[in-house]
Amino acid sequence: MKYINLLFILTFFTISNLSGQIIFNASAVEDICGDVTLTLNNATDLTEDNCQFTTAYSNVQSGTNTLEVTSDIPSLFYTSTLDMVILMKNMDEGFESYAQGIAADFNNDAVISTDDLIAMRRVILGIDTDIPKKVKLATIDQVSDPLTSLDLSSEHTSLTFNDTDVEEGLAEEIFLVIVGNLK
């Protein structure tokens, strides 16, 4: 399974007033970063340059902040009949990681079921042309930890952090998971 690795670094610098930027460094197997949009607090799209997403520190609000992901990636990107076979097998035998379960949630209902298999098949056959979310967010723990049930903790379309995390210099690896790519 291919992930886009983002190193989530929140930094700020003080010169004469509070300023700085939030940086998300991504490394991608395919150059798809231009097709991904990260939005902070439903208001500010982060600037993307060579898979590095940035925004001014002034866009961080006091209290809770939310980073959301959207994309213009086509529905069939990294999705094939092999993914359907892997989904059927993993629903029976278990998923290697929680992030693989996120990739299996094709209909975006936070439950891995035959409904995801049907939705994937309809897209592959050209009956449907779109899925709710093609890219989702996962933390480093979710990439390495196994999935213990077929229920996910959320839809994984956003990441929440506090402004105090920024002040403390939070550094966390997050990943963009391509839905439908189970290889």
**Low-pLDDT stretches:** 2-20
Rg from Cα: 17 Å
> What is the residue-mean pLDDT, rounded to a whole number?
78
- Oligomeric organization of the protein chains: single chain
Q: What is the rounded distance between the termini? A: 4 Å
H/E series, N to C?
A: EEEEEEEEEHHHEHEHE
Let me know the largest β-sheet.
Answer: 6 strands, antiparallel
- Beta-strand content estimate: 25-35%
Give the overall shape, derived from the CA principal axes: globular
What is the share of helical residues? Answer: 10-25%
Number of strands: 12
Give the strand line-up of the largest sheet. 7-8-4-1-12-10
Number of separate structural domains:
1
Secondary structure class reads alpha+beta
Q: What's the total helix number?
A: 5
Give the structure's gist in a few sentences.
The chain is an alpha+beta fold. It contains five helices and twelve strands.
Features:
disordered N terminus, four-stranded antiparallel beta sheet, six-stranded antiparallel beta sheet, 183 residues, alpha+beta, globular, 12 strands
